[in-house]
Design brief:
Elements (H helix, E strand, L loop, with lengths): L1 E3 L3 E6 L2 H13 L7 E4 L3 H11 L6 H11 L5 H11 L4 H12 L3 E6 L4
Antiparallel strand pairs: 1-2, 2-4, 3-4
Pfam families: YflT
InterPro entries: GSP17M-like_dom (IPR025889)
Protein name: General stress protein
Length: about 120
């Protein structure tokens, strides 16, 4: 499933290899590394894909100080939903994407910068 809203695009892919291909497609479409995020249920997998494929992880800049601090006390599922919402998605969209991450898929998100 792909979703678009006014600022963000998301695509669920089966694995890290397909995530890297999607990230490359986004780069070729004009998105910069700073505009592309990757999420997997396993944080180590997220880090590895982001590093290899030229994307970012959702961090304090996107979530804010309170959100990042709150994640220390959240379950991984709650943390992932909060990260997805911080990139402009609704709670319902975040819940859908988090369920996809639960079954081993990878989420690639591209965010247009405010101009």
């Amino acid at each position: 499933m792909s979703s678009t809203n006014t600022k963000s695009y998301a695509k669920v892919v089966e694995n890290g290899t397909l995530a890297a291909q999607e990230i490359e497609n986004l780069h070729q479409s004009g998105y910069t590394t700073d505009q592309i995020y990757v999420l997997a249920h396993d944080s180590d997998k997220t880090s590895k894909i982001a590093e290899v494929a030229g994307s970012r992880e959702v961090g304090m800049k996107e979530e804010g100080l309170f959100g990042s601090f709150a994640n220390l006390f959240r379950s991984r599922g709650d943390e992932l939903r909060a990260k997805i919402e911080s990139l402009g998605f609704t709670a319902a969209e975040a819940a859908f994407y988090e369920k996809q991450l639960d079954i081993g898929k990878v989420l690639v998100i591209a965010v247009k910068n405010d101009e």
